[in-house]
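Quick one:
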Amino acid sequence: MAGQAHLAVGNRAALLVLLGCSAVAWYLTVLGARGMPPGPGTMGLALGGFLAAWTLMMAAMMLPALAPLTTMYLRSLRATPSAAVRAFRTVALVVGYLVSWALFGALAFAAALLAGQLATTAPAVSPWVGAGVVAAAGVYELTPLKDFCLRHCRSPLAFLLHVSGYKGTFRDVRVGIYHGVYCVGCCWGLMAVLTAVGLTNLVWMAAIAATVLLEKTWSRGRAVSRIVGVALIAFAFLVPGNPALLPGLYASVGM
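Output:
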């Protein structure tokens, strides 16, 4: 009983640390976005700086949804006597998870760069491209592939059974990367929308973060993904007549 109580305390502590890291990442993201209205392009950053900012944004938005897996992972490590080792292995899991999103950030950088060029060189075309991106993201929310990736993210126990055979020094990082790949598969459409609405758009960031959290942790998460998909498709129809709805593809006169 004492061991179980100690494990429960450790799980709560890990959860608080995870949420605390997300809160710090949000704070730094808001500081970075302050005075920088949403607009097209890569926030004026080269690839290295963009990937650092992107990974920070993903930590802010995605870490709360990682809490169920982290708690389950700590339980799977209960046979490890050292609390320091358990903490280190859990950190390695989170690092691996963020590595997946950092790698995806390279694609986000290319998309943001292309969006910035499109907004300035083809302003008549960019709203239609943006509408297509948003509509495609909405349709993806309704597909079997989305459901497949979401089932993985919503089933930490089945996931841990799958990766239980991982061995070696970097096994926990591999576990995090493996889960992160499924998470990218689940959420890439929402991140494409974030690129279209502007990477410093804090309102959309918060909305997407809330959507991801509900999809992955709420009992009606699959219904949430379908509602969001339909809403994105409806939103896409408004874009061609209102290009400013997608600041990531709209170069205003001031810019």
